[in-house]
Amino acid sequence: MSGQIHDITLTVNGQEISETVAARVTIADFLRDNLGLTGTRLGCEHGVCGTCTVRIDGVITRGCLVLAVQCAGTRVETIEGVSDTGEIADLQDAFRRRNALQCGFCTPGMLLTAQELLTRAKDSGNVPSREAIREHLSGNYCRCTGYHAIVDAVEAVAQARAGEK
Could you tell me the CATH number of the domain that includes residue 102? Predict the structure, then answer.
């Protein structure tokens, strides 16, 4: 094939996918356009807003900054995947209960980013402070909530996962 088209194989939400993609296609566009996984949103397309957040080999990544061809051989997880497995059910419930999702545009990226923080906190045995939650989520923009409800939701889940009240 020419240098502009590539065959790639990757695992998306636990399913092996083989596709032919143009070299310039981002993983966010690939997920949305080729696979119909529209939970990965496109906002700024400069890696600033966080709406395109996905996990690549377990690490949250801005999907608008990574080419699909760079993901060949990787494991990509989207909001649909972590939601379907139930991994973030408590976090989703807390967002709903605390009205931390408002319009919902930023929510998938917020949830994946919050889950990363909560996983790190669990692994270290610490409950993140409100300041640590704000700092970790600072790369994800929300234009509706003012962040207070989001921080409340993440803090509640962090405390619940740690066995606190």
Answer: 1.10.150.120
